[in-house]
Design a protein that fits this description.
The chain is built from nine helices and two strands. It is mainly α and 198 residues long. It has one domain. It has a two-stranded antiparallel sheet with strand order 1-2. Helix 7 packs antiparallel against helix 8. The chain is globular and about 40 Å long. The mean pLDDT is 84.
């Protein structure tokens, strides 16, 4: 049974929720993570994808940025067509990471999360409230489509991870400044990828 809890209000709360992820004692599946978060809000999907892409020990695994791109692309596309419940294929939900890596990465994120949460507050809300969330979803879809080639351009996947995290934070905290920074970083990262590939 999938949980339908409210979306987390900041990054520290998200980490608290993620640490409670159940399932297999030795590994954590994407299915278990999303069951813990609930599947009716787009923002946690962005935060999970951004954090996993950025996290040491997880984001450095080959193929992980592309896997997170699949998560973002599928969820963003469904937001754009108006679905209120995100569906993901079983092959994606079955992807796993060791619980030891997962727990260590979450603990590594604790200190920056506390610092980031102090910066969050409602502002420039027109950039996060409907229908502005559709532009966020479209931008995140573009990021997701660009993430596979980013694995060939050093550090560009980190830029994508930060951008996704900023958009997720903007939506959960109704903080348009985070969304604005996300747009700026997306433009910079995509430019670097195009230059790096060409």
């Amino acid at each position: 049974m999938h949980r339908c809890d409210p979306a987390p209000s900041n990054l520290s709360t998200l980490l608290d929720i993620l640490e409670s992820t159940g399932g297999h004692p030795d590994s954590v599946s994407l299915d278990a993570i999303l069951d813990t978060l609930g599947r009716r809000s787009f923002a946690p999907f962005l935060l999970v994808a951004g954090i996993i892409t950025l996290a040491p020990l997880i984001g450095d695994i080959p193929g992980v940025p592309t896997l997170m791109a699949s998560l973002v692309a599928l969820s963003a596309a469904q937001i754009l067509i108006g679905r209120d419940h995100v569906w993901l294929p079983q092959w994606l939900l079955d992807r796993r990471v060791s619980r030891a890596r997962f727990t260590k990465a979450l603990r590594w994120m604790r200190k920056p999360a506390r610092w980031i949460d102090r910066l969050l507050r409602p502002r420039l809300t027109r950039l996060t409230r409907p229908p502005a969330h559709l532009l966020v979803a479209l931008t995140c879809l573009l990021i997701a489509l660009a993430m596979p080639p980013m694995e060939l351009v050093p550090f560009s996947a980190n830029g994508a991870g930060i951008a996704l995290t900023l958009f997720g934070l903007g939506l959960v905290a109704n903080d348009g400044l985070m969304a604005l920074l996300g747009y700026m970083l997306t433009a910079t990262t995509l430019t670097l990828v195009i230059v790096g590939i060409v």
